[in-house]
Write a structure and sequence with these properties.
- With about 140 residues, this protein is mainly alpha-helical.
- The protein has one domain.
- The chain is about 95% helix and about 0% strand.
- The chain has 2 helices and no strands.
- The protein has helices at about 1-15, 20-144.
- Helix 1 (about 1-15) runs antiparallel to helix 2.
- The longest helix is centred in the middle third of the chain and has 122 residues, at about 20-144.
- The radius of gyration is 57 Å and the shape is rod-shaped.
Length: about 140
């Protein structure tokens, strides 16, 4: 900045070699310094405002992402709970169905076994009766 002022003063001096005044030169230097100071202040204010806006934007973004993440977590939790309930109900239905099938199969097996034993017993009784009758007939014909 100091070089700029010095160069400006030298250039002004050369252009106005006949009308040179130290008072005008110092006044011009003061005006240039004041203008640069205001520009620097405006730049600093703009940078500060930009930083504040950036911070606010980051805060809004973080809040938005936080809300979205929370909503997603709640949705996933709800979905997992629904899935768990559906799995439990499905397991319950499957267990009830298998239990009913096992019971029905056991009853049918018992009935079939009872029928088989009854038939086998009747067949053995009939065979025994026939054998006894045949033996009696055969013994009777040998005796007579």
């Amino acid at each position: 900045m100091r070089k700029t002022i010095l160069i400006s003063a030298v250039a002004l001096t050369m252009l106005n070699a006949g009308d040179f005044s130290f008072g005008d030169m110092f006044k011009d230097m003061k005006d240039a310094t004041t203008t640069m100071s205001h520009d620097a202040r405006d730049t600093a204010d703009s940078m500060k405002d930009g930083a504040v806006e950036t911070a606010k934007s980051a805060e809004r973004t973080t809040t938005s992402v936080s809300h979205d993440a929370r909503d997603s977590a709640v949705k996933v939790s709800d979905d997992l709970k629904s899935s768990e309930i559906a799995t439990v109900k499905s397991g319950e239905v499957s267990t009830t169905s298998v239990s009913r099938d096992v019971r029905d199969s056991t009853v049918e097996l018992a009935e079939d076994t009872k029928d088989s034993i009854t038939t086998a017993t009747r067949d053995m009784k009939d065979s025994s009766t026939m054998a006894t009758k045949d033996l009696k007939d055969s013994t009777s014909s040998c005796i007579s």
